[in-house]
Amino acid sequence: MISALAVAAILGAPAMAQQVTGTPGSAGATSTIDGRYLPNPPPPFRGEINPNAVDSKPYWPAITVPPKGAPNVLLIMTDDVGFSAPSTFGGVIPTPALDRIAQTGLRYTAFHTTALCSPTRAALLTGRNHHSVSTGVVVDQATGYPGYNSVIPRDAVAIGEILRQNGYDTSWYGKDHNIPQWEGSQAGPFHNWPTGAIKGFDYYYGFAGDDTSQWQPNNLFRNTTPIQPFLGNPGWNLITAMADEAIGRIKMLNEVQPDRPFMIYYAPGGTHSPHHPTKEWVDKISNMKLFDEGWNKLRETIFANQKKLGVIPQSAQLTAWPKDLPQWDTLSPEAKKLYIRQADVYAAYLAYTDNEIGRVIQAIADAGKLDNTLVIYISGDNGSSPEGTVHGLFNEFAVANAVNPTVEMNMKFYDAWGSDQTYPHYAVGWAWAWDTPYQWTKEVASHFGGTRNGMAIAWPARIKDAGGIRNQFHHVIDVVPTILEAAGLPQPVNVNGIAQKPIEGVSMAYTWDKADANAAGQRTTQYFEMFGSRAIYHDGWIASAPPVHAPWVFTLDKPPADVMNGFPWELYNISEDWTQSNNLAAKMPEKLRAMQQLFAMEAAKYQVFPLADTRLERFISPKPSYTPGRTLFTYSGEVSNVPFPETGSAPSLLNRSYTITVEVEIPQGGAEGMLMTDGGRFAGYGFYLLKGRPVFTWNLVGLERVKWQAKEALAPGKHTLQFDWKVDSPGLGKGGTATLKVDGMVADSHPMPRSLPITLMWDETFNVGLDTGTSVDDQDYQVPFKFTGRINKLTVKLGPSEITVAEKEKIEKTRRDKQ
Questions:
Q1: How far from the centroid of its chain's Cα atoms is residue 225's Cα?
Q2: pLDDT digits (tens, 9 = 90+) for 285-304
Q3: Are 163 and 73 in contact (CB under 8 A)?
Q4: Is residue 397 part of a domain?
Q5: What CATH code is carried by the domain that includes residue 287?
Q6: How far apart are CA 802 and CA 584, in angstroms?
Q7: In this structure, are 493 and 541 located in the same domain?
Q8: Signal peptide span per the entry (predicted)?
Q9: What is the pTM of this model?
């Protein structure tokens, strides 16, 4: 859908009236620019140049500024927050910062995302549908089709670049899960990073990837430089550190350039797994006993709250509880105790995250700028997450490596849940409850449980209907045109020499006045698609094709090969049935057929084809690499913070034989420290000297650590160490035998029955000569554990990889059988 502004720009609308302050050509002059063509062409020199300066006249180009009255922008997006988790939309978890924006502005009850993080964020920043900007799935699952390759095209630059070139200061805090994996290391290139010319932010402080530990985020960057501010700083937490960074920039701008408008994009890791609140917040929420009656009762409480608040109609129906999730009353006392702990920690994480967001909002108020700040607070980039499986996870990397924790296994980490000793996620029953009153969850694009998220907008200088509720159907692509209209800026036709594809969203500003509270929605059509599940909205109707298998069910059953026609469809009149509870497909086949045809047309328009209901295959499918087929890696001295070994940026030791050879010099008095590591506390390996003795440790998702150790410390002088792993047979997670040698002599050799099949910790990195994240064994050493000798040469030689789709499916069967 093309907005009126975009149409006008494409048809050659005249330039916006220029606003100039000061005397043109003087050092203090400022000016707005056309805005349709960025950067603005260089202005002509209107002074005089003669051989002597005394006979010449200078003429300064004006400083570019936004139009008069353009607001500051604070764009907030939290992570994995279901519609009904926050108090603002009927939940029991206190979110006073979101309440504050809703009470001073407007609450939007029919705002939609894409059902998954990378796609939603690409759509949010560009104003185009997620397939239009090549982000049909998360970047880790990119495939070589235009709608899915994860490379946001240069003809769809983000709001940061548009505002920056119009004179705004632009900064980004938190998650960026939209960097192609093969460009995600410190080697770059950086044009797809937050500070690159596509996204356009002057400053970045955050983490690259899906998620990170909030206690020890080893994928944290300042602009494009890896940083570890948590080292030697006990109690440090990224949720607070992010707020401190944003507040610091607000204060700096207010003191150094007080008249310059700013845009802050604030995207915390909260509340994506791992759920890492501080102990104070866990204690506060636990004492409130919000979840002791369980998830079924919680849904009823939330549903009643929502009707009282008016965020759902009085006629809305509570959708049915799914048959494959247990009713609370059927659970054992031990399971209930565990699940309540999971909910308390999650709720503490959401409350903590909202509190720190509130500090940022208050900093703008303290600077005297909140009245003219457009605050858009989007509560979640998709519905609540089902990725914790039926019992929850003490360690997210366990299930990623075919270990599905039982209640008993999780209970071993009960007291540590939420601390840096866990990487936790709640059981899926809570996900369904936190999407009340809707069906389904994150990953499911067919129903509002996956795609409907609460949003509040405030701009006190412009929006006067404080506490108002808006029910118009809108989508995340509508945010960019809303910001542009508020700033008085056109949608650009050409940016950095590239003609821009039209923005596909529509502005929501038509809803801001109280008189227009019930205005007809201007988004009349919107498609949804994720992993083959899909929907099409049009004029108060929605046709929905839910997934064949729930995202928390692990099965070998194949989805239909014909995804387009093999999924069952449902039909809802949401003008009368707000929650998609009354399926009319059987009663109205002609209407359903017309909606299906409309989906096909929209899908063709926005690069949705080809459809596929695949997840694992996308993770292991070949992706671009700057070092394709690399099997030999050589290092000397220290190397740190190299991510994504699967792209060839660092050696990947999974599912293959390999040999690591290290030539070291040991000084007088001996040496210890890390030689080579990847991963950490929750999954990974380390090759190090411990009190002078060579040790190689494999950490198998925190449940087991297998070691090879020399008996004697290395004497001063030169030595050659070697760790040689031979797999028993090709395949995923196979066992094998490793031999540790010192100067050609066997120091230790024994088998390891199994290895990690799928992944190390994605928020940790590859290092040589030190360890920058968490240790693979806290009993052996603490980071950074720098090597105190000298590494003359370290070589890793990899054997062939044997990863196949069939082997991935075997892992899935193992996970299902263990449930």
A1: 19
A2: 999 999 999 999 999 999 99
A3: yes
A4: no
A5: 3.40.720.10
A6: 48
A7: no
A8: 1-17
A9: 0.95
